[in-house]
Amino acid sequence: MIKMNILSKKSNKVKHVKNEAFKSFWERNRLSNGYLLKKTIGRKIFKFCRAIMLFGLVFLIIQPILSKISVSFMEERDLYDATIINIPRTWSTSNYELSSELMNYWKGLGQTLWISLLVAVIQVASTTLVAYGFARYNFPGKKLLFGAVILSIVIPPQTILTALYLNFRYFDIFGIFKMVTGQSLNLLNSILPYLMISAGAMGLKNGLYIFMLRQYFRGIPKEMEEAAYVDGCGKLKTFLVIMLPDAKPMLTSIFLFSYVWQWTDSFYSSLFLRKFNLLSNSVAGLADKLMQYIQDISNRTQFPSTAYTQAIISTGTLMVIAPLIIIYIVAQKGFVESLAQSGIKM
Amino acid sequence: MDKEKNQPRQRKQKKPKSMAYRNAVAGYLFTAPFIIGFLLFLLVPLMQSLRMAFSTVKFEGGIAYYFIKFANFKYIFTVDAEFVPLMLDELWQMIYTIPSIIVFSFFIAIVLNQEFKGRGLVRAIFFLPVILSSGVLVGLETNNTLMQGLKDVIAETSNATSITDVVKSIFFAEGAYMGPIQYVFDAVDRVYDIAMSSGIQIIIFLSGLQTISASMFEAAKIEGATAWETFWKITFPMVSSLILVNVIYSIIDFFVRSDNEVMNHIKDTMTASVEYGRSSAMAWTYFAMIAVIIAIVSAFISKRVYYYD
Fold first, then answer.
1. Residue A104 contacts by C-beta under 8 Å, 6 or more apart in sequence?
2. Same domain, yes or no: B23 and B90
3. What is the pLDDT, as a whole number, of residue B174?
4. Which CATH class is domain A104-284?
5. Which residue among A50, A208, A310 places its CB closest to the CB of B146?
6. Are residues B261 and B224 in the same domain?
């Protein structure tokens, strides 16, 4: 308005512009037979309702975290005090100390950090290769293979759980190990099985990553690659030098998905990575450990109260997701934008 | 085009290899990790578990299978008291939940696609469930006995646990027929669960909404279409293919989530009672049910999906 004002003052020739700008709202409303007023009120009401609804839903989503935070700082007697709502009377970090001790937190955090990182890197590498193969090359049986990708998304991992477990319990490749050492290998107590599964793009939700990356690669124009081929660049080099930098945003999101879901995964972790002190495993067993601990210090069969158990579990959950929340806050902008741009279509 | 160009030159060389051939080789090499992984870690275990489903598994130094035909299936359907009710319950819940997840995520995606202050923050919070409702955290949340206890106490003292109960008592006579409104009320009561399980779906819908070109809306506006018409004639058809994707994703997500009762039952049968054959039979029955549902749903929806290009 002000800019227009200055503009119209400078150019005296176009006077009607000035007049238009200075007409009051009511005058303009009268000219439009009340349409402007109706429209403005409608828009205001819409915005107001939207703001209230969004605020409500946002609150709904973060409320459990907030309540966990408040409970995690309370002492046990605060939990039963009806006069205490949300804000603890005495702030104490004893819950954190206890659950950190029970979960063996720092060691677990370190191990979860590097195992998730390793697994995520391997999964991203293999799924990217596969997705690129599906997006750019035609070969006989491609449709059938892509059907296999869909199958790997659809099959619940529990279906093959038993067989997979036994496979690695008595691991052997065409009977070679049995011939050499006289018995098959038991790989269950190492990280190897899960790394092998990840390298084979069969880890947690890997079919979904292949699907998403393939869509993304298809959306990148082919001209760059063709130019590279004309200049004598090999296929692998073209992929590494031309395609990967282009796909960076999507790769970042897939990496984050893979990292976060690996972090919280309990299925593969409890099956293959039991030996490691992973946070997802230890938070799942926190209630039992607390009971054990209480019985140990009191020297008789005594059960910790429900409220106290929940407080400890809440604290443990917070401690598990805290690093993830930090990663999310840091990477959030790129994450959200790249996902929104990926243009997933069937 | 490349093929034609290369043909004459290649004929002069001793080993003629067409572009198509080399592309096929490259394609196989790129997808090799998946091919190997699929065969070793999916197809072989799948066949093995199918074999287990039809036999008794015993451990005598190695694994021994004793073929027993359909005895395992007969057991889980006739003797096991838990499996069939659990599965039916899960199925019913799925049918009940999926529509509300789809509607909710579509609605939220549309709102998040509009311009308003603080959109980035709101988007970030709506995508938070992608982290928070994954893996072990879901189980912890649903096993929250404290919240359950609180809810019971509130129910006892005020005889209405939710806002919808209050609304119901105001507008409806006791025991009156509610029909579809009951569904809406239930959905409102479970809005937290729905919001927590629709993170990915919102992302998928949002990405679809952003691919619709703005010129379409502009053209519609100039022609005098109302917002309502624009929604049903442009927005809805343009993202209809994503509804299919989202429905299938939600179904799978629902069936394999970690606090699933059927899954726990299968796992318990395997680890606690060491009945590998029965557990495999259950897993296969469950998988067959999911496959049938997905086939029916995708056949039903894909007929109504509109493809722009």
1. A277, A282
2. no
3. 67
4. mainly alpha
5. A310
6. yes
